[in-house]
UniProtKB/TrEMBL annotation:
It is an enzyme of class 2 (transferase). It comes from Paramecium sonneborni. This is inositol-1,3,4-trisphosphate 5/6-kinase. Pfam families: Ins134_P3_kin (PF05770). GO terms for molecular function: ATP binding; inositol-1,3,4-trisphosphate 5-kinase activity; inositol-1,3,4-trisphosphate 6-kinase activity; inositol-3,4,5,6-tetrakisphosphate 1-kinase activity; magnesium ion binding. Its EC number is 2.7.1.159. Residues 277-473 form the Inositol 1,3,4-trisphosphate 5/6-kinase ATP-grasp domain. Its cofactor is Mg(2+). InterPro entries: Inositol_tetrakis-P_1-kinase (IPR008656), InsP(3)kin_ATP-grasp (IPR040464). Keywords: ATP-binding, Kinase, Magnesium, Metal-binding, Nucleotide-binding, Transferase. One of its GO terms (cellular component) is cytoplasm.
Length: 486
Protein backbone atom coordinates (compact mmCIF):
# COMPACT_ATOMS: atom_id res chain seq x y z
CA UNK A 1 0.00 0.00 0.00
CA UNK A 2 1.35 3.41 -0.97
CA UNK A 3 2.26 5.68 1.94
CA UNK A 4 0.64 9.11 2.31
CA UNK A 5 3.26 11.85 1.93
CA UNK A 6 1.52 14.32 4.28
CA UNK A 7 2.18 13.94 8.03
CA UNK A 8 -0.83 12.49 9.84
CA UNK A 9 -2.01 14.57 12.81
CA UNK A 10 -4.11 12.54 15.27
CA UNK A 11 -5.83 14.68 17.91
CA UNK A 12 -7.29 13.29 21.13
CA UNK A 13 -10.44 15.39 21.50
CA UNK A 14 -10.54 15.15 25.32
CA UNK A 15 -9.57 18.55 26.82
CA UNK A 16 -7.90 19.52 23.53
CA UNK A 17 -10.98 21.13 21.99
CA UNK A 18 -13.31 21.87 24.87
CA UNK A 19 -13.46 22.48 28.61
CA UNK A 20 -14.18 19.06 30.11
CA UNK A 21 -14.74 20.33 33.65
CA UNK A 22 -17.46 22.74 32.53
CA UNK A 23 -18.73 20.17 29.99
CA UNK A 24 -19.16 22.96 27.46
CA UNK A 25 -18.73 22.41 23.75
CA UNK A 26 -16.07 23.95 21.60
CA UNK A 27 -15.20 27.38 22.92
CA UNK A 28 -13.73 29.94 20.53
CA UNK A 29 -14.99 28.06 17.47
CA UNK A 30 -13.86 30.79 15.08
CA UNK A 31 -10.28 30.57 16.33
CA UNK A 32 -10.28 26.78 16.16
CA UNK A 33 -11.71 26.81 12.64
CA UNK A 34 -8.93 29.14 11.49
CA UNK A 35 -6.38 26.92 13.21
CA UNK A 36 -7.72 23.80 11.48
CA UNK A 37 -7.61 25.60 8.13
CA UNK A 38 -3.91 26.38 8.64
CA UNK A 39 -3.10 22.88 9.83
CA UNK A 40 -4.91 21.31 6.85
CA UNK A 41 -2.39 22.98 4.56
CA UNK A 42 0.37 20.87 6.13
CA UNK A 43 -1.23 17.79 7.71
CA UNK A 44 -3.76 15.07 7.14
CA UNK A 45 -5.95 15.47 10.26
CA UNK A 46 -7.90 12.90 12.26
CA UNK A 47 -9.77 13.86 15.46
CA UNK A 48 -10.45 10.83 17.67
CA UNK A 49 -13.28 10.63 20.20
CA UNK A 50 -12.58 7.96 22.82
CA UNK A 51 -14.40 9.04 25.98
CA UNK A 52 -15.13 6.22 28.39
CA UNK A 53 -18.78 7.30 28.67
CA UNK A 54 -20.66 6.49 25.42
CA UNK A 55 -23.25 9.29 25.76
CA UNK A 56 -20.54 11.90 26.36
CA UNK A 57 -18.56 10.58 23.43
CA UNK A 58 -21.55 10.71 21.09
CA UNK A 59 -22.54 14.21 22.18
CA UNK A 60 -19.14 15.78 21.54
CA UNK A 61 -18.65 13.82 18.34
CA UNK A 62 -21.96 15.21 17.00
CA UNK A 63 -21.02 18.73 18.09
CA UNK A 64 -17.67 18.49 16.35
CA UNK A 65 -19.16 17.27 13.07
CA UNK A 66 -21.72 20.08 13.19
CA UNK A 67 -19.16 22.84 13.85
CA UNK A 68 -16.09 21.60 11.97
CA UNK A 69 -17.13 20.33 8.57
CA UNK A 70 -14.39 18.87 6.39
CA UNK A 71 -12.26 17.61 9.31
CA UNK A 72 -12.05 13.81 9.50
CA UNK A 73 -13.24 12.48 12.87
CA UNK A 74 -13.94 9.03 14.32
CA UNK A 75 -15.27 7.42 17.47
CA UNK A 76 -12.71 4.83 18.54
CA UNK A 77 -12.03 2.97 21.75
CA UNK A 78 -8.48 3.04 23.11
CA UNK A 79 -8.06 -0.57 21.99
CA UNK A 80 -9.36 0.16 18.48
CA UNK A 81 -6.93 3.07 18.24
CA UNK A 82 -3.99 0.81 19.09
CA UNK A 83 -5.06 -1.81 16.56
CA UNK A 84 -5.41 0.65 13.66
CA UNK A 85 -2.53 1.04 11.18
CA UNK A 86 -1.87 4.28 9.28
CA UNK A 87 -0.07 4.58 5.96
CA UNK A 88 1.83 7.81 6.69
CA UNK A 89 5.58 8.20 6.88
CA UNK A 90 5.23 10.69 9.73
CA UNK A 91 2.59 10.57 12.47
CA UNK A 92 1.98 13.16 15.19
CA UNK A 93 -0.25 12.45 18.20
CA UNK A 94 -1.71 15.22 20.40
CA UNK A 95 -3.03 14.08 23.77
CA UNK A 96 -2.87 14.78 27.49
CA UNK A 97 -3.14 11.09 28.40
CA UNK A 98 -0.19 9.69 26.48
CA UNK A 99 -0.02 6.50 28.57
CA UNK A 100 -3.37 5.26 27.19
CA UNK A 101 -3.80 7.15 23.92
CA UNK A 102 -1.15 5.22 21.97
CA UNK A 103 -0.51 3.64 18.56
CA UNK A 104 1.23 0.41 17.60
CA UNK A 105 3.61 2.25 15.26
CA UNK A 106 6.16 5.02 15.54
CA UNK A 107 4.86 8.57 16.16
CA UNK A 108 5.87 11.93 17.61
CA UNK A 109 3.99 12.77 20.80
CA UNK A 110 2.82 16.30 21.61
CA UNK A 111 1.72 16.63 25.21
CA UNK A 112 -1.39 18.84 25.51
CA UNK A 113 -1.46 20.91 28.69
CA UNK A 114 -4.77 22.27 29.99
CA UNK A 115 -5.68 23.75 33.37
CA UNK A 116 -9.12 22.20 32.85
CA UNK A 117 -7.53 18.85 33.60
CA UNK A 118 -7.72 17.45 37.11
CA UNK A 119 -4.73 18.70 39.09
CA UNK A 120 -3.30 15.51 40.60
CA UNK A 121 -3.77 13.49 37.40
CA UNK A 122 -2.19 16.18 35.28
CA UNK A 123 0.75 16.75 37.63
CA UNK A 124 1.69 13.06 37.60
CA UNK A 125 1.41 12.78 33.81
CA UNK A 126 3.20 16.02 33.04
CA UNK A 127 6.22 15.37 35.27
CA UNK A 128 6.59 11.85 33.87
CA UNK A 129 6.32 13.23 30.33
CA UNK A 130 9.24 15.57 30.87
CA UNK A 131 11.41 12.76 32.18
CA UNK A 132 10.96 11.05 28.81
CA UNK A 133 10.91 14.09 26.53
CA UNK A 134 12.45 17.24 28.03
CA UNK A 135 12.22 19.36 24.88
CA UNK A 136 9.49 22.02 25.34
CA UNK A 137 8.91 22.08 21.60
CA UNK A 138 6.58 19.11 22.10
CA UNK A 139 4.54 20.59 24.95
CA UNK A 140 1.56 22.69 23.80
CA UNK A 141 -1.76 24.17 24.97
CA UNK A 142 -3.37 24.92 21.58
CA UNK A 143 -3.57 22.78 18.46
CA UNK A 144 -2.14 25.52 16.22
CA UNK A 145 1.15 25.18 18.13
CA UNK A 146 1.58 21.90 16.26
CA UNK A 147 3.22 24.05 13.59
CA UNK A 148 6.34 23.78 15.77
CA UNK A 149 6.74 20.34 14.11
CA UNK A 150 8.47 22.09 11.24
CA UNK A 151 10.90 24.01 13.48
CA UNK A 152 14.44 22.66 13.21
CA UNK A 153 16.21 24.76 15.84
CA UNK A 154 18.21 22.83 18.44
CA UNK A 155 18.65 25.47 21.17
CA UNK A 156 16.09 28.29 20.85
CA UNK A 157 15.13 30.92 23.41
CA UNK A 158 12.55 29.36 25.77
CA UNK A 159 9.53 31.43 26.87
CA UNK A 160 7.37 30.03 29.66
CA UNK A 161 3.81 31.34 29.49
CA UNK A 162 0.49 31.39 31.30
CA UNK A 163 -2.69 32.87 29.82
CA UNK A 164 -6.36 32.18 30.38
CA UNK A 165 -8.20 31.00 27.23
CA UNK A 166 -9.58 34.35 26.02
CA UNK A 167 -6.20 36.11 26.00
CA UNK A 168 -4.41 33.02 24.69
CA UNK A 169 -6.77 32.84 21.71
CA UNK A 170 -6.07 36.51 20.96
CA UNK A 171 -2.35 35.78 20.82
CA UNK A 172 -2.64 32.59 18.79
CA UNK A 173 -4.55 34.39 16.02
CA UNK A 174 -1.49 36.35 14.98
CA UNK A 175 0.69 33.28 15.49
CA UNK A 176 2.40 34.35 18.69
CA UNK A 177 3.32 31.50 21.09
CA UNK A 178 4.05 29.10 18.22
CA UNK A 179 7.53 27.61 18.39
CA UNK A 180 9.76 28.62 15.48
CA UNK A 181 13.46 28.48 14.64
CA UNK A 182 14.33 31.06 17.33
CA UNK A 183 11.74 30.61 20.10
CA UNK A 184 10.23 27.73 22.06
CA UNK A 185 7.02 28.28 24.05
CA UNK A 186 6.30 26.24 27.15
CA UNK A 187 2.90 26.32 28.95
CA UNK A 188 3.30 26.76 32.71
CA UNK A 189 0.77 25.46 35.23
CA UNK A 190 1.50 27.05 38.60
CA UNK A 191 -0.86 24.66 40.35
CA UNK A 192 2.33 22.66 40.88
CA UNK A 193 5.99 23.64 41.02
CA UNK A 194 7.62 23.79 37.62
CA UNK A 195 11.13 22.69 38.50
CA UNK A 196 11.40 20.22 35.67
CA UNK A 197 12.33 22.68 32.94
CA UNK A 198 14.42 25.84 32.74
CA UNK A 199 13.01 28.81 30.87
CA UNK A 200 14.68 32.01 29.70
CA UNK A 201 11.70 34.31 30.35
CA UNK A 202 8.23 34.22 31.94
CA UNK A 203 5.40 35.76 29.88
CA UNK A 204 2.02 35.91 31.57
CA UNK A 205 -1.32 37.39 32.56
CA UNK A 206 -1.13 35.64 35.90
CA UNK A 207 -3.50 37.99 37.76
CA UNK A 208 -6.38 36.68 35.62
CA UNK A 209 -6.65 33.73 38.00
CA UNK A 210 -8.69 36.09 40.19
CA UNK A 211 -11.30 36.65 37.46
CA UNK A 212 -13.81 34.12 38.71
CA UNK A 213 -16.24 34.82 35.89
CA UNK A 214 -13.74 33.78 33.21
CA UNK A 215 -11.43 31.33 34.98
CA UNK A 216 -12.83 27.98 36.03
CA UNK A 217 -10.57 27.37 39.04
CA UNK A 218 -11.46 26.37 42.57
CA UNK A 219 -10.40 28.63 45.45
CA UNK A 220 -7.80 26.15 46.72
CA UNK A 221 -6.29 25.98 43.20
CA UNK A 222 -6.12 29.78 43.00
CA UNK A 223 -4.27 29.87 46.33
CA UNK A 224 -1.94 27.08 45.21
CA UNK A 225 -1.32 28.92 41.94
CA UNK A 226 -0.35 32.08 43.82
CA UNK A 227 1.92 30.25 46.29
CA UNK A 228 3.80 28.41 43.56
CA UNK A 229 4.14 31.55 41.46
CA UNK A 230 5.64 33.41 44.44
CA UNK A 231 8.00 30.51 45.09
CA UNK A 232 9.02 30.37 41.43
CA UNK A 233 9.86 34.09 41.42
CA UNK A 234 11.80 33.79 44.67
CA UNK A 235 13.87 30.84 43.45
CA UNK A 236 14.45 32.21 39.92
CA UNK A 237 15.32 35.87 40.37
CA UNK A 238 17.57 35.67 37.33
CA UNK A 239 14.60 34.96 35.02
CA UNK A 240 13.01 38.14 33.59
CA UNK A 241 9.23 38.50 33.83
CA UNK A 242 6.80 40.33 31.52
CA UNK A 243 5.31 41.91 33.59
CA UNK A 244 5.92 41.55 37.33
CA UNK A 245 2.91 41.29 39.62
CA UNK A 246 4.31 44.04 41.88
CA UNK A 247 4.20 46.48 38.97
CA UNK A 248 0.70 45.39 37.96
CA UNK A 249 -0.68 46.05 41.44
CA UNK A 250 -0.14 49.77 40.84
CA UNK A 251 -2.84 49.66 38.15
CA UNK A 252 -5.58 47.96 40.14
CA UNK A 253 -6.91 50.78 42.35
CA UNK A 254 -8.19 53.57 40.12
CA UNK A 255 -7.87 56.31 42.77
CA UNK A 256 -4.24 55.45 43.58
CA UNK A 257 -3.46 55.23 39.86
CA UNK A 258 -4.92 58.70 39.37
CA UNK A 259 -2.63 60.14 42.05
CA UNK A 260 0.43 58.50 40.46
CA UNK A 261 -0.51 59.84 37.02
CA UNK A 262 -1.04 63.35 38.36
CA UNK A 263 2.47 63.28 39.81
CA UNK A 264 3.77 62.48 36.32
CA UNK A 265 1.86 65.43 34.83
CA UNK A 266 3.24 67.73 37.54
CA UNK A 267 6.84 66.60 36.99
CA UNK A 268 9.34 69.04 35.41
CA UNK A 269 9.98 66.52 32.63
CA UNK A 270 6.36 66.66 31.50
CA UNK A 271 5.76 70.33 32.28
CA UNK A 272 8.65 71.39 30.03
CA UNK A 273 6.89 69.78 27.07
CA UNK A 274 3.51 71.27 28.01
CA UNK A 275 5.04 74.76 27.86
CA UNK A 276 6.00 74.18 24.21
CA UNK A 277 2.45 73.25 23.19
CA UNK A 278 -1.00 74.77 23.37
CA UNK A 279 -2.56 71.69 24.93
CA UNK A 280 -2.52 69.94 28.29
CA UNK A 281 -3.13 66.31 29.34
CA UNK A 282 -4.63 65.84 32.82
CA UNK A 283 -6.42 63.37 35.04
CA UNK A 284 -10.20 63.86 35.29
CA UNK A 285 -11.72 65.07 38.54
CA UNK A 286 -13.05 62.20 40.62
CA UNK A 287 -13.90 61.12 44.15
CA UNK A 288 -13.97 57.75 45.90
CA UNK A 289 -17.43 56.98 47.21
CA UNK A 290 -18.41 54.19 49.61
CA UNK A 291 -21.83 52.80 48.70
CA UNK A 292 -22.58 51.00 51.95
CA UNK A 293 -26.36 51.36 51.95
CA UNK A 294 -26.31 54.18 54.51
CA UNK A 295 -27.85 57.65 53.83
CA UNK A 296 -25.21 60.09 52.56
CA UNK A 297 -25.05 63.71 51.44
CA UNK A 298 -25.07 63.81 47.62
CA UNK A 299 -26.00 67.47 47.20
CA UNK A 300 -22.56 68.80 46.23
CA UNK A 301 -21.97 66.53 43.25
CA UNK A 302 -21.88 67.96 39.73
CA UNK A 303 -23.62 66.07 36.94
CA UNK A 304 -23.37 64.25 34.57
CA UNK A 305 -21.07 61.63 36.11
CA UNK A 306 -19.42 58.38 35.12
CA UNK A 307 -19.64 55.81 37.91
CA UNK A 308 -17.36 52.75 37.95
CA UNK A 309 -15.78 50.35 40.42
CA UNK A 310 -12.76 51.55 42.40
CA UNK A 311 -10.89 48.46 41.33
CA UNK A 312 -9.80 48.73 37.72
CA UNK A 313 -8.99 45.05 37.21
CA UNK A 314 -9.56 41.52 38.52
CA UNK A 315 -13.29 41.97 39.18
CA UNK A 316 -16.19 40.78 37.08
CA UNK A 317 -17.63 44.32 36.93
CA UNK A 318 -14.50 46.33 36.16
CA UNK A 319 -15.76 47.03 32.59
CA UNK A 320 -19.31 47.88 33.70
CA UNK A 321 -19.94 51.61 34.11
CA UNK A 322 -22.89 53.96 34.38
CA UNK A 323 -23.83 57.45 33.25
CA UNK A 324 -25.68 59.39 35.95
CA UNK A 325 -27.37 62.75 35.29
CA UNK A 326 -28.93 63.65 38.65
CA UNK A 327 -29.18 62.75 42.34
CA UNK A 328 -32.26 60.59 41.74
CA UNK A 329 -30.27 58.57 39.23
CA UNK A 330 -27.36 58.11 41.64
CA UNK A 331 -29.66 56.88 44.42
CA UNK A 332 -31.26 54.45 41.96
CA UNK A 333 -27.88 53.24 40.70
CA UNK A 334 -26.67 52.53 44.23
CA UNK A 335 -29.46 49.94 44.52
CA UNK A 336 -27.95 47.91 41.67
CA UNK A 337 -25.89 44.94 42.88
CA UNK A 338 -22.89 45.63 40.63
CA UNK A 339 -22.53 49.14 42.09
CA UNK A 340 -22.10 48.21 45.75
CA UNK A 341 -18.94 48.92 47.75
CA UNK A 342 -16.22 51.40 46.78
CA UNK A 343 -16.89 53.35 43.61
CA UNK A 344 -15.28 56.08 41.55
CA UNK A 345 -17.51 59.05 40.71
CA UNK A 346 -15.82 60.82 37.82
CA UNK A 347 -16.65 63.89 35.79
CA UNK A 348 -17.85 63.17 32.27
CA UNK A 349 -15.48 64.57 29.67
CA UNK A 350 -17.25 65.44 26.43
CA UNK A 351 -14.83 64.75 23.60
CA UNK A 352 -16.71 64.99 20.28
CA UNK A 353 -16.85 61.18 19.85
CA UNK A 354 -13.10 60.80 19.38
CA UNK A 355 -10.95 58.55 21.53
CA UNK A 356 -7.22 57.89 21.12
CA UNK A 357 -6.38 54.29 22.00
CA UNK A 358 -2.70 53.96 22.88
CA UNK A 359 -1.00 50.56 22.90
CA UNK A 360 2.54 50.09 24.14
CA UNK A 361 4.25 46.86 23.08
CA UNK A 362 7.81 46.98 24.33
CA UNK A 363 9.48 49.98 22.73
CA UNK A 364 6.76 50.29 20.09
CA UNK A 365 3.86 52.71 20.66
CA UNK A 366 0.74 52.36 18.52
CA UNK A 367 -1.96 55.05 18.41
CA UNK A 368 -5.40 54.25 17.01
CA UNK A 369 -8.08 56.93 16.67
CA UNK A 370 -11.59 55.53 17.07
CA UNK A 371 -15.18 56.58 17.42
CA UNK A 372 -16.17 56.98 21.05
CA UNK A 373 -19.32 57.84 22.99
CA UNK A 374 -21.33 60.90 21.89
CA UNK A 375 -21.30 64.08 23.96
CA UNK A 376 -23.57 63.80 26.99
CA UNK A 377 -25.70 66.64 28.34
CA UNK A 378 -28.18 66.39 31.22
CA UNK A 379 -31.05 67.87 29.17
CA UNK A 380 -30.47 65.33 26.37
CA UNK A 381 -30.84 62.24 28.58
CA UNK A 382 -33.66 59.86 27.64
CA UNK A 383 -34.41 57.80 30.75
CA UNK A 384 -36.43 59.06 33.72
CA UNK A 385 -34.44 56.80 36.08
CA UNK A 386 -31.51 59.23 35.71
CA UNK A 387 -28.87 56.56 35.09
CA UNK A 388 -27.76 54.22 32.30
CA UNK A 389 -25.49 51.17 32.70
CA UNK A 390 -23.20 50.07 29.85
CA UNK A 391 -20.28 47.75 29.09
CA UNK A 392 -17.11 49.46 27.89
CA UNK A 393 -16.03 46.32 26.01
CA UNK A 394 -18.94 46.64 23.58
CA UNK A 395 -19.61 49.21 20.83
CA UNK A 396 -19.37 52.40 22.88
CA UNK A 397 -21.02 54.84 20.47
CA UNK A 398 -23.97 52.56 19.72
CA UNK A 399 -24.30 51.47 23.34
CA UNK A 400 -24.31 54.92 24.94
CA UNK A 401 -26.43 56.47 22.16
CA UNK A 402 -29.33 54.39 23.53
CA UNK A 403 -29.66 56.74 26.52
CA UNK A 404 -29.75 60.00 24.52
CA UNK A 405 -32.72 61.80 22.96
CA UNK A 406 -30.66 63.21 20.10
CA UNK A 407 -27.30 61.89 18.93
CA UNK A 408 -24.64 63.84 17.07
CA UNK A 409 -23.42 61.30 14.50
CA UNK A 410 -20.47 63.43 13.39
CA UNK A 411 -16.85 63.18 14.48
CA UNK A 412 -15.11 66.51 15.04
CA UNK A 413 -11.41 66.34 14.32
CA UNK A 414 -8.79 67.63 16.76
CA UNK A 415 -6.98 70.72 15.45
CA UNK A 416 -3.99 70.18 17.78
CA UNK A 417 -3.42 66.52 16.97
CA UNK A 418 0.29 66.79 16.10
CA UNK A 419 1.08 68.42 19.44
CA UNK A 420 -1.19 66.01 21.26
CA UNK A 421 0.57 62.96 19.79
CA UNK A 422 3.95 64.32 20.90
CA UNK A 423 2.70 64.60 24.46
CA UNK A 424 1.15 61.12 24.27
CA UNK A 425 4.48 59.67 23.14
CA UNK A 426 6.29 61.26 26.08
CA UNK A 427 3.56 60.19 28.50
CA UNK A 428 3.69 56.58 27.31
CA UNK A 429 7.47 56.42 27.73
CA UNK A 430 7.25 57.84 31.27
CA UNK A 431 4.51 55.36 32.22
CA UNK A 432 6.65 52.48 30.93
CA UNK A 433 9.59 53.69 32.99
CA UNK A 434 7.78 54.70 36.20
CA UNK A 435 5.48 51.67 36.35
CA UNK A 436 8.13 49.29 34.92
CA UNK A 437 5.67 47.96 32.36
CA UNK A 438 6.28 46.56 28.88
CA UNK A 439 2.70 45.86 27.79
CA UNK A 440 -0.04 48.37 28.52
CA UNK A 441 -2.64 50.63 26.99
CA UNK A 442 -4.54 53.77 27.91
CA UNK A 443 -7.14 56.10 26.46
CA UNK A 444 -6.93 59.84 25.81
CA UNK A 445 -10.08 61.93 25.38
CA UNK A 446 -10.85 65.66 25.26
CA UNK A 447 -11.13 68.57 22.86
CA UNK A 448 -9.69 72.01 22.15
CA UNK A 449 -6.63 72.20 24.40
CA UNK A 450 -7.76 70.06 27.37
CA UNK A 451 -7.24 66.31 27.23
CA UNK A 452 -7.54 63.56 29.84
CA UNK A 453 -6.08 60.11 30.40
CA UNK A 454 -8.59 57.40 31.28
CA UNK A 455 -7.11 54.45 33.24
CA UNK A 456 -4.17 52.25 32.27
CA UNK A 457 -4.77 48.64 31.27
CA UNK A 458 -2.15 45.94 31.41
CA UNK A 459 -1.74 43.77 28.30
CA UNK A 460 -4.59 45.08 26.11
CA UNK A 461 -5.64 43.34 22.91
CA UNK A 462 -3.09 43.76 20.10
CA UNK A 463 -5.14 42.06 17.37
CA UNK A 464 -5.10 45.12 15.08
CA UNK A 465 -1.37 45.74 15.50
CA UNK A 466 0.78 44.89 12.47
CA UNK A 467 3.73 42.53 13.00
CA UNK A 468 2.64 41.85 16.59
CA UNK A 469 4.41 38.48 16.74
CA UNK A 470 7.72 40.03 15.68
CA UNK A 471 7.28 42.86 18.20
CA UNK A 472 6.71 40.34 21.01
CA UNK A 473 9.81 38.40 20.01
CA UNK A 474 11.88 41.60 19.94
CA UNK A 475 10.56 42.42 23.42
CA UNK A 476 11.57 39.00 24.79
CA UNK A 477 15.15 39.48 23.63
CA UNK A 478 15.32 43.12 24.82
CA UNK A 479 14.08 42.26 28.32
CA UNK A 480 16.32 39.21 28.59
CA UNK A 481 19.38 41.16 27.45
CA UNK A 482 18.62 43.95 29.93
CA UNK A 483 18.29 41.40 32.76
CA UNK A 484 21.69 39.90 31.90
CA UNK A 485 23.33 43.32 32.34
CA UNK A 486 21.99 43.73 35.88
Amino acid sequence: MQQNSSPLLIIDSRYTLYDFRQKTTYKYNTVLQKSFQKLQQHFQILVVFCHSKPNTNQFFFNEFQKNFKGIDSKQLSIQELKETSYQNQEIIVVTHNYEQFTLNQKYQLYYFSSISQQLEKKKKLELKYYEKNPRPKFHISHIQQIMSFFSKSENPFCVGYYFYPKKFNELIQFEALITNSNFNYLPIDFRFQNKYREIDLLFHRFMDIYKRKEINMKQNEVELFQQNYDLFIKENKQIPVIDSIECLKLLIQRDELNIKLQSIFDSPEFQNVVKEHNIKIMTPQQIVFENNGQPQDLSNLKYPLIVKSKQGALTANCHIMAIVVNEKGLIGLFKQEQFKGQLILQQIINHNSIIYKIYQLGSKMIVQKRKSIPNIEVNNFKFEEGFYIFDTQKDLFKNVSECLIKVDEGIHECSNEVQLLKQIELLSSIIAREFKLHLFGFDIIGMNWKFYIIDINHFPGYKNVENARELFEQLFIQVSTKQMRI
